[in-house]
Specification:
The chain has 11 helices and no strands. The protein is mostly helical and 199 residues long. It has 2 domains: 119 residues, no CATH class; 58 residues, no CATH class. The longest helix has 18 residues.
């Protein structure tokens, strides 16, 4: 990579809190078509759809038809939590936050997404793991560390173009918010990023 300085590496979106539109259609298709033999598929798909819509703004979430049912769904989950309690607790957290979308806490949503990402990788569902890692950054667009972590996870899974986008995003947000350490970490990650077309 020919980047000369951190400042040259970062994009300049209109505002660091503006919705991010990064999408990986291939991974989304894998999420939809992958088998979930443990019966978790409906909850996983529903939560992913909800957080993706919310990340684009409360107005976007208003078009998701099952939002009015989230309070009942949250209660149903909490009353019936079973094996993999941490997984279901994260699902319930998303439902609880988004039953009042305008008051939802981005960091609570991001933490729930990271729990679901870790669960997915541990369960052998890498597409879901990657998408929820990205979702954690999507719901907190002003958090450079979430973007950087998404980039690292994508790099580890050899999704290099997506990793580069998130490293650039992390660097820009870090530079804007004055997080010099993370700005340099993102810059170094970009410098060290392997181009799969050459390797």
């Amino acid at each position: 990579m020919d980047t000369e300085s951190p400042q040259d590496a970062w994009p300049e979106p209109p505002a660091i809190t503006a919705p991010i539109s990064f999408r990986d259609i291939e991974l989304q298709e894998q999420l939809i078509t992958s088998p979930f033999p443990d019966g978790s598929a409906p909850a996983v798909l529903r939560v992913y759809r909800l957080v993706l819509a919310w990340s684009q703004g409360v107005q976007a979430l208003s078009h998701v038809s099952d939002v009015p049912d989230l309070a009942a769904w949250e209660e149903e989950i909490l009353l019936g939590i079973r094996e993999e309690e941490w997984f279901w607790a994260a699902i319930a957290m998303v439902a609880g936050e988004l039953k009042a979308p305008a008051a939802a806490d981005p960091e609570r949503l991001a933490r729930a997404c990271m729990v679901l990402s870790e669960w997915a990788f541990a369960s052998g569902k890498p597409a879901a793991g990657l998408l929820f890692a990205e979702a954690a950054a999507l719901v907190s667009p002003g958090n450079a560390r979430r973007a950087y972590r998404a980039g690292r996870i994508l790099r580890e899974q050899e999704r290099f173009p997506a990793a580069e986008r998130w490293f650039r995003r992390a660097g820009y947000v870090a530079a804007t918010t004055g997080d010099g350490k993370l700005e340099w970490l993102a810059f170094l990650a970009l410098e060290d990023l392997i181009d799969p077309s050459e390797g």
